[in-house]
Please model this.
Amino acid sequence: MVTKPKLNALTVIRYMKTKNRVKNLLTTLLFTGLGFQASLVQADEVVKVEKQLLSSLSAINSLELDKALSNVTDLQQHNPKYKLAQLLTADLMAAKAGQFKLVKQVHQNHAKSVNTLLDEAEVRWQFSKESLNHSTGFDDFVLKSAQQNLILVSLQESRLYLYDKNDKGQMVRVADYYVTMGKKGSGKQREGDQRTPIGVYHLVDLLPGNTLPDLYGVGALPLNYPNIWDKSHGKTGSGIWLHGVPSNTYTRAPKASRGCVALNNKAMKRLLSEYSMPYSTPVVIVDQKQAPLGVSQTKESLLADVKTWLQDNHEKVDWQKVSVFKYPNEKNLYYITFPGKVENTLTQQFWQRDPDGDWKVVVQSEGSIQVASK
Model:
């Protein structure tokens, strides 16, 4: 088994001199917009910074050190809080000067700080390699969405995807950002375990940055963790938010939060101010690709079953206002929501099939999901 080297300027240069494995991949990515399909995404300043980072790595890949140094220096100057850009600049300057021992010594003396930056670079590198034929997994988990907006967080990729309905009523991706998750990874079970939960949640509040400690950056969007499924399985904890980063930081390492999902402040500001996301907007958090439904259970047949069940048991439910999700990391579990009998409430149901193949509602709740905490 070959160990993949950490991705910084020095190791990429050495690696590419002996192993011609990546070739023109990054250059290709520059012409495909990193796989981003919407023009709104390509115009996003945060995405432009990410593309410039990959452009720098592309130049390193081609051993064009002057071009790489010029590019990454410009990136650092326009984003002085971006510590990864600072590290790449220093490594490139040292590589040009032949000061390999000095770089090694500096990296050893500041191993913890350097390694967190290299972890981010590795995540960006891996995501860029997969983005040419990239699927966010939206169709695997979202069978039907009644909401205008929806957020999908892929912890495996350290990415947040924002979807919005277009004029034809189709959910399209309009934003795509690098994110940080809990220090201990995913699968939150209890208070203080520093893990990010897996499941389907909803936005329940909007907290401006001026009301929060600097740790949370420009603001936060709290989630309703633990939801009714979590509670029924004994999961504990609170204060799981989507939020920004400290004012002296551009991004954080892939695993650096206490369980929240953290974004670059400019990206978070867009979520807070430029997109109309009301309370109850779904946030689907996954950490792996979903297995197919199976030959005997297509998406269309499953939705037909759900529709029939609702007609038989909740005859007044408007199908257009029903959402259906395949629940992440759970076998044959589906999460169904639709407006409650009382105005401004939401019925939440968790469905599984019994041994006879019939639907069974295993957990249900009806009421306002807004449980704002400040």
